[in-house]
Write a structure and sequence with these properties.
Layout lengths: L2 E6 L7 H13 L5 E5 L13 E4 L33 H11 L3 E6 L1 H14 L3 E5 L15 H22 L2 E6 L6 H9 L4 E3 L7 H13 L5 E6 L14 H12 L5 E5 L11 H19 L5 E6 L2 E6 H4 L11 H8 L7
Parallel strand pairs: 1-2, 1-4, 4-5, 6-8, 6-9, 7-8
Antiparallel strand pairs: 2-3, 10-11
Helix pairs in contact: 1-8, 4-5, 5-10, 6-7
Length: 344
């Protein structure tokens, strides 16, 4: 009976618990594994006593629709550089040996997968990855779980802001997550009927945004909806991180002094709450896929969704390129076709 560890790394996302549930029900329940959950990323084995838990199918009750992760997660769990700045990767190897853990299933995004590959290359740890990020910025998989839940959250926010914007003839600016990739803003902007969508991949021009607002006014639509990804920047300018939405507001108010502009920052609401049905299904499929990779001895691979099928891909390939919004993408063409201004 193999002993396998499972942990989450990086930020939280809707769907983490369904992955844990699927791995537990399939790996421990049907394949006979001893499954050990490590708390707060790799950090759970850097303390004494270890912060770990034995995962059994009976412990999975209620996890399918539960947001967050019962194992906890952190952005500060890199074994090669913990909070004290020291390299604890050899300590990780020793801890896994003491616990009898033969390999790890690690659920995480781009940063976590890079750490996994370093652990494979430099410490010989056996790892299977499961991709997680609401930003949908891992190029090796068609989509990551958590993304659709974030899009639904942002779309619902646009729907709600539409009514108040129309009531007061205001310009409503909604800032959503997306530090380097604008997938959430683009998907939600099209789905929620935004008039302007601003993404990190396309530096925006204030004059174009204002022109769209004025066109709507001239056509009897005195209110406008703008959605902006947190990493978007004005053309030729720099702004402080986390100020993308405010930068748009300031630019509109400067060029249209008579406009009433309101900013809503959605923030971590996009990460919280129950995963939508699509993410529950995708997370479950990926959890089962991770068990299959372990059973086949395909260590060093990450589960992915490709052309509707769950399969494995080397982690090295998964982290080779970043998934940006392509300037020639069909989604951008769709946005322009329905009259959405992209700022450039």
């Amino acid at each position: 009976m193999p002993t396998i560890g499972i942990l989450c790394g990086g930020g939280d996302a809707p769907g983490l618990n369904p992955v844990i549930r699927a791995v537990t029900k399939y790996g421990a329940g049907q394949r006979g594994w001893k499954l050990i959950g490590i708390e707060d990323s790799f950090n759970g084995v850097f303390e004494r006593p270890y912060r770990i838990r034995l995962l059994t199918p009976i412990a999975c009750k209620g996890l399918l629709g539960r947001g967050g992760t019962v194992l906890g997660t952190t952005n500060h769990g890199n074994p090669f550089k913990l909070a004290d700045g020291a390299d604890h990767s050899t300590q990780l190897v020793k801890a896994l040996g003491e616990l009898g853990i033969e390999g790890l299933i690690v659920i995480g995004g781009d940063g976590t997968m890079k750490i996994c590959q370093q652990l494979i290359d430099e410490r010989g740890i056996k790892i299977v990855g499961v991709p997680k990020t609401i930003d949908n910025d891992l190029s090796a998989t068609d989509v990551t779980f958590g993304f659709q839940s974030a899009v639904d959250c942002a779309t619902d926010a646009l729907d709600r802001l539409h009514t108040t914007a129309a009531s007061h003839d205001r310009v409503q600016v909604l800032e959503v997550m997306g530090r380097d990739a604008g997938w959430i803003a683009l998907h939600a902007g099209i789905s929620g009927g935004a008039d302007v969508v601003i993404v990190p991949e396309i530096p925006w021009e204030a004059a174009r945004v204002v022109r769209k607002i004025e066109e709507r006014r001239a056509n009897g639509r005195p209110f406008s909806m703008i959605i902006v990804a947190e990493g978007a920047v004005p053309l030729g300018e720099r702004i402080k991180p986390g100020k993308a939405g405010q930068a748009v507001c300031d630019a509109v108010e400067q060029l249209l002094p008579n406009a009433e502009v309101r900013l809503t920052v959605l923030g971590h609401l996009q990460r919280g709450g129950s995963p939508v049905a699509y993410d529950r299904l995708l997370a479950t499929r990926m959890g089962v896929g991770a068990v299959d990779l372990v059973e086949a001895g395909r260590w060093g691979e990450m589960v992915r969704l490709r052309d509707g099928r769950i399969e494995g891909v080397p982690i090295t390939d998964a982290i080779a390129t970043y998934r940006h919004v392509d300037s020639q993408s069909e989604l951008l063409r769709t946005a322009r076709a329905v009259g959405i201004e992209l700022g450039a």
